[in-house]
Specification:
With about 280 residues, this protein is an alpha/beta fold. The protein has 2 domains: about 5-180, NAD(P)-binding Rossmann-like Domain (Rossmann fold, 3-Layer(aba) Sandwich); about 190-270, N-(1-d-carboxylethyl)-l-norvaline Dehydrogenase, domain 2 (Orthogonal Bundle), CATH 1.10.1040. It is built from 12 helices and 8 strands. An 8-stranded mixed sheet has the order 3-2-1-4-5-6-7-8, with helices on both faces. The chain is globular, with a radius of gyration of 19 Å. The protein starts with a strand and ends in a 17-residue tail after the last helix. Keywords: NAD, Oxidoreductase. This is 3-hydroxyacyl-CoA dehydrogenase.
């Protein structure tokens, strides 16, 4: 497999494009919005330069990797001759299904279609295509170029061959992989959403400040980042969509904290809006 297409140039999409280019893939980064692509290109150029400055890459490696990436608003151009597509758009089932239907018509027969969903059903998405055996979930973590894991989630019809190829892709991207049988939230999102939601309840109830809740988890339980700071990084709107899906599929223990709902209604979405549980400089 030589060409990899990423659909969606937001935080996760551009991160996947970064590691794919470093891993040797010819990368096509697709988005419906040219301004999003322009921002992604600036981000990738900046991050590659920082990595070279810090010695994680040579300047030649960074230069070659950047040349491997093309940017396009045309899904046909991005995916018409690709070997694998990784969809990285919002956690909305209708949107993902629509994209997979289009990809199924555009892509060659051998192309693997992967979704970067953190909670949703790859079986449901795959059922809308004529190639469910070639559909799978590959759940990356933010920031993609630093986090070592990909959760690879097998749908009901996913073939052994597709699972094997997904693991090979993960290895080429420099990642460790775990194989997960589909269930809402998989492994990490189920655990992470519970911890984060309880941290929000603690804050709402006045048990401790955001800073002290996060400090307790970092120093007391050895978490690398506090759950409230992590929710701000992920995006509180994204976290709320995840919680709503898990609440719908798994029940009461995943009911979103009222404080999370209030923050999203107020536009306090975390780092990307400048304010969430913490305030961030622009």
């Amino acid at each position: 497999m030589e060409k990899l297409t990423v659909v969606g140039s937001g935080t996760m999409g551009r991160g996947i494009a970064y590691v794919a280019a470093i891993g040797g893939f010819q990368v096509s980064l697709n988005d419906v919005n040219q301004e999003n692509l322009d921002r992604a290109k600036l981000y990738l150029e900046t991050e590659m330069t920082k990595s070279a400055d810090k010695g994680f890459l040579t300047r030649e490696q960074a230069s070659v990797a950047l040349k491997r990436i093309e940017y396009t608003t045309s899904l046909e151009k991005a995916a018409g001759d690709t070997d694998v597509v990784i969809e990285a758009v919002f956690e909305l089932m209708e949107l993902k299904v629509d994209i997979f239907k289009k990809l199924d018509k555009i892509c060659p027969e051998h192309t693997i279609l992967a979704t970067n969903t953190s909670t949703m059903s790859p079986t449901e998405i795959a059922a809308q295509t004529s190639r469910p055996e070639k559909c799978i979930a590959m759940h990356f973590f933010n920031p993609v170029h630093k986090m070592k894991l990909i959760e690879i989630v097998r749908g009901l019809e996913t073939s052994d061959e597709t699972m094997t190829k997904a693991k090979e892709i993960g290895k080429k991207l420099g990642k460790e992989t775990v194989e997960v049988n589909e269930f809402p939230g998989f492994v990490t999102s189920r655990m992470n959403c519970l911890i984060g939601n309880e941290a929000m309840n603690l804050l709402m109830e006045g048990v401790a400040s955001a800073e002290d809740i996060d400090k307790s988890m970092k120093l007391g339980l050895n978490h690398p980042m506090g759950p409230l700071a992590l929710a701000d990084l992920v995006g509180l709107d994204t976290r709320l969509r995840n919680m709503e899906y898990l609440y719908k599929t798994l029940g009461e223990k995943y009911r979103p904290c009222p404080l999370l709902i209030k923050y999203v209604k107020a536009g306090r979405l975390g780092r990307k809006s400048g304010q969430g549980f913490y305030t961030y400089e622009s």
